Every structure is written in structure tokens, then in C-alpha cells.
């Protein structure tokens, strides 16, 4: 009888230990960062209207329109690194006082992330700043995660979120346009957002002639490319000719083709192959097949800049056929980086990218680093 009791006790302890391990690995730990205590920045931006695949906003008054872009924050179940990421996110927003914040994907990752998704939205509600952006390849890739569509629905339920899922007839989530108007109603800038998904399915590999030496990462589909081209024409019909910016998570194939080949760089010796700024420290991880998006961008003539995330230690920009292809400065501390690899703080790259949109349709871009090195 005594032996049986010991066996039962050991079994119970084993279950508790296993449950604790699962909980530690998948459940979001409470942020030590005090979200309730965030001092608001406020906004002079007004939402004028929206459709299923577009939102129109306007800044009242004169002056430049400031955008801060963050990417690959990887807000997961880890406490310390999430707190550090949120701390710098809030500090940058409070210091720079942007009119708009955009996220480049891999924002909330890992399993059991419903609470983290709400927490991120609540941060922007406390700051009082409008925000939008796209999802990355790690949102929804865990069976314990909320789906990508659920995450977009969570975000867009908050008053300051401008992120939209897009048309049901177009593949993916976050296929939408954001129109920024001047005070007089003219168009200052358009942002086009496209879903770039995660990894290719076996069916896609067969259709595209994929081979083992090609990347497995996915990219926008034909119907998304068609939607983008139609949206450019629709915008021109409403506002006249316009320059625009695209935001996706996974880089375009043309970025890899124009960068250094694998082996021509390292973390200690970053590459500098004619880049306009920044450096290459890892291979450009993008789709391995041509999906027609870059040709559509050139044919449309509107989009002059494409921003992406995904590769955490690349922060360069280069020009291909008159189009600027640029990384957003990586922002998170939870995934691989100079921080996670134990490099000294002066080498860390975490920060954000600032855009100042000028009245003449141009913009000034600055890569801001949390360690003050840029």
C-alpha cells in the first residue's frame, strides 16, 4: 500500500513538472513593464474613412509627417527580452512622437500568444498613436498560436489600429492600402501592404519548379500582385499620379540577387557591396521563385521604395532598376541577433527606422539604433 502511494505521488509530481514545463515554454509570462503607466504621446491624425482593403487618414496642420517603423520584435513568452523590446518601443515612440507607427512583421510570435497580441495593441492605445503594418512568417506558425486572421482581427478591434485583413477574394492577411492626406485633402503618401506568408507548401514547390538549393520561403501570390496593380490604378484615378511605399515582411527575390552571395560576409565582417547604407551580415532569406511582384512595381511606376524585415542582422538598402529595396532596422531582443549571441552592446542593431514625409512627396530616412550608434 505504501509502495502504491509512492508511485501515485511520483506520477502526480511528473504530471505537475511536465505541465509546468509546457506552461513555461508556451504561456506568455506577465510583462514586468507597466503598460498602465505609459505616458501618452497623442496624435493629430484623423481617420477619414475605410473600406475592406484601405484606410484614409489625415494630419491636421502643417509640417512633416513622421513615421516610425519597427520589425521582428518577436514578442513571445519570454519575460526579460519582451520587457526590453517593449521598453525601447515605448521610449522611441515617446521620444520621436511619430504621427504613425508601422510594424514589419514577426511582431507577436510563439504559442499561446492571444494575450501578447492584446498587450501589444494596448501599448499603442496607451500611447495614443495610430499604427498598422503587416504580419511575418512566424505569426501563426505554431499550433498553439492564434491564427493569422485571428491576430489581425484582435489588432483591428482597437481604436488606434489601422491594420486591415483585406478582401476575402485576395489570398492572405494584411493586403491593404493606407492613404495619408494633407490638410487640404491632397495625397501626401500611400503605403501598400502585402502578406508574404511563411514557407512554401509541397504543392507550391511542385508548381514553381522548386529545387533543394532554393529558399523555402514564400511570397505574395498572383492574385495579390493583381490586387496591388489594380489598387495603384484606382489610387491614381482618385488622387492623380502618386509615389508610394510598399511594406512586406520577407524580402523580394531581387534583393538577394543584388546583394552579396552566400559566404561573402559574416557577422564579424559584414559585406558592403555598393549598398546605399547599412551592411549585410547574413544571406538574404527570400522566396526562391519569381512571383511577378517586382515587375508589377516597375510597370505601375508608383512604388519607389519597398521596406522589409525578416533578416535580423541585415540593415542595408540598395537600388534595383530605380527601386529602393531596404530593410527596416530590427527591433526585438527575443530572437537571434548580436544581443542573443553575446556581442558587446555597441554592436547591437536593435532600433527602428524613421521616415519624414515631406510635402513634395519625397521622404528622409534614418536608421535609429537603441544603443545610440546611429
Give an account of the 3D structure:
By secondary structure, the protein is of the alpha/beta class. It contains eight helices and 13 strands. It has two domains: 30 residues; 338 residues, 4-Layer Sandwich (Purple Acid Phosphatase, chain A, domain 2), CATH 3.60.21. Strands 1-2-6-7-8-9-11-10 form an eight-stranded mixed sheet. Strands 5-4-3-12-13 form a five-stranded mixed sheet, with helices on one face. Helix 6 runs parallel beside helix 8.
Question: Could you give a short description of this structure?
Answer:
With 374 residues, the chain is of the alpha/beta class. The protein is built from eight helices and 13 strands.
- Give the domain tally: 2
| CATH topology call of the largest domain | Purple Acid Phosphatase, chain A, domain 2
What do we call the CATH homologous superfamily of the largest domain? Metallo-dependent phosphatases
Per CATH, the architecture of the largest domain is: 4-Layer Sandwich
Task: Tell me how many strands there are.
Answer: 13
What average pLDDT do the residues reach?
90
* Helix and strand pattern: HEEEHEHEHEEHHEHHEEEEE
Q: Strand content of the residues, in percent?
A: 15-25%
The main pleated sheet reads as: 8 strands, mixed
Q: What is the spatial order of strands in the main beta sheet? A: 1-2-6-7-8-9-11-10
Tally the helices.
Answer: 8
CATH class of the largest domain: Alpha Beta
> Which percent bin holds the helix content?
25-40%
Cα separation of the termini:
70 Å
Secondary-structure content class: alpha/beta
- Show unreliable segments: 18-26
Oligomeric form: single chain
Radius of gyration: 22 Å
Shape call: globular
Amino acid at each position: 500500500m505504501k509502495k502504491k502511494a509512492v508511485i501515485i505521488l511520483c506520477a502526480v509530481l511528473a504530471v505537475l513538472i511536465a505541465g509546468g514545463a509546457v506552461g513555461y515554454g508556451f504561456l506568455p509570462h506577465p510583462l514586468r513593464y507597466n503598460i498602465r503607466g505609459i505616458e501618452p504621446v497623442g496624435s493629430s491624425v484623423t481617420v477619414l474613412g475605410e473600406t475592406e482593403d484601405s484606410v484614409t487618414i489625415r494630419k491636421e496642420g502643417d509640417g512633416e509627417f513622421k513615421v516610425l517603423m519597427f520589425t521582428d520584435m518577436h514578442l513571445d513568452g519570454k519575460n526579460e527580452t519582451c520587457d526590453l523590446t517593449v521598453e525601447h518601443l515605448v521610449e522611441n515612440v515617446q521620444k520621436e512622437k511619430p504621427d504613425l507607427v508601422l510594424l514589419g512583421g514577426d511582431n507577436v510570435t510563439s504559442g499561446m500568444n492571444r494575450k501578447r497580441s492584446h498587450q501589444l495593441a494596448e501599448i499603442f492605445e496607451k500611447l495614443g498613436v495610430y499604427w498598422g503594418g503587416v504580419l511575418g512568417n512566424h505569426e501563426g506558425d505554431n499550433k498553439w498560436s492564434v491564427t493569422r486572421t485571428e491576430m489581425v482581427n484582435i489588432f483591428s478591434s482597437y481604436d488606434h489600429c489601422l491594420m486591415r485583413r483585406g478582401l476575402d477574394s485576395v489570398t492572405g492577411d494584411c493586403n491593404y492600402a493606407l492613404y495619408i492626406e494633407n490638410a487640404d485633402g491632397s495625397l501626401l503618401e500611400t503605403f501598400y501592404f502585402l502578406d508574404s506568408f511563411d514557407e512554401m507548401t509541397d504543392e507550391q514547390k511542385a508548381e514553381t519548379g522548386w529545387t533543394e538549393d532554393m529558399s523555402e520561403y514564400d511570397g505574395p501570390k498572383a492574385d495579390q500582385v493583381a490586387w496591388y496593380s489594380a489598387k495603384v490604378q484606382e489610387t491614381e484615378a482618385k488622387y492623380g499620379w502618386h509615389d508610394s511605399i510598399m511594406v512586406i515582411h520577407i524580402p523580394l527575390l531581387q534583393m538577394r540577387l543584388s546583394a552579396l552571395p552566400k559566404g561573402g560576409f559574416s557577422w564579424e565582417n559584414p559585406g558592403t557591396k555598393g549598398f546605399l547604407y547599412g551592411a549585410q551580415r547574413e544571406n538574404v532569406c527570400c522566396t526562391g521563385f519569381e512571383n511577378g511582384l517586382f515587375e508589377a512595381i516597375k510597370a505601375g511606376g508608383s512604388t519607389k521604395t519597398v521596406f522589409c524585415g525578416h533578416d535580423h542582422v541585415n540593415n542595408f538598402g540598395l537600388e534595383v532598376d530605380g527601386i529602393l529595396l531596404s530593410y527596416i532596422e530590427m527591433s526585438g531582443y527575443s530572437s537571434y541577433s548580436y544581443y542573443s549571441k553575446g556581442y558587446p552592446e555597441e554592436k547591437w542593431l536593435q532600433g527602428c527606422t524613421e521616415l519624414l514625409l515631406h510635402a513634395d512627396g519625397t521622404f528622409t530616412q534614418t536608421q535609429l539604433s537603441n544603443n545610440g550608434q546611429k
